[in-house]
Amino acid sequence: MTYAQLTSEDLETYAPTVVLVDDQNRLLQVHRYSDLLEKANVINNVRA
Predict the structure, then answer these.
(1) Domain ranges in the chain?
(2) In this predicted model, what pLDDT tens digit does every residue of 1-48 receive, in sequence order?
(3) In angstroms, rounded to a whole number, what is the distance separating the alpha carbons of residues 45 and 39?
(4) Contact yes or no for 15/5 (Cβ under 8 A)
(5) Contact 10, 28 (CB under 8 A)
(6) Which residues pair with residue 17 across a beta bridge?
(7) Quick check: pTM over 0.90?
(8) Which of 6, 10, 22, 30 has its CA 20 to 30 A from that of 37?
(9) Radius of gyration of the chain (CA)
């Protein structure tokens, strides 16, 4: 797990990436969440 400090401007365009590795740190999967966040922003804009 990692943490970051982001400005408000950075948060507007930030899209997390989750990397899953095995016991020997070999890459298993990469998940990019930009599409999911984009959909959430559309939903939030409709509610506003």
Answers:
(1) 8-47
(2) 788 898 988 888 888 888 999 999 999 999 888 877 676 766 566 665
(3) 10
(4) no
(5) no
(6) 32
(7) no
(8) 22
(9) 14
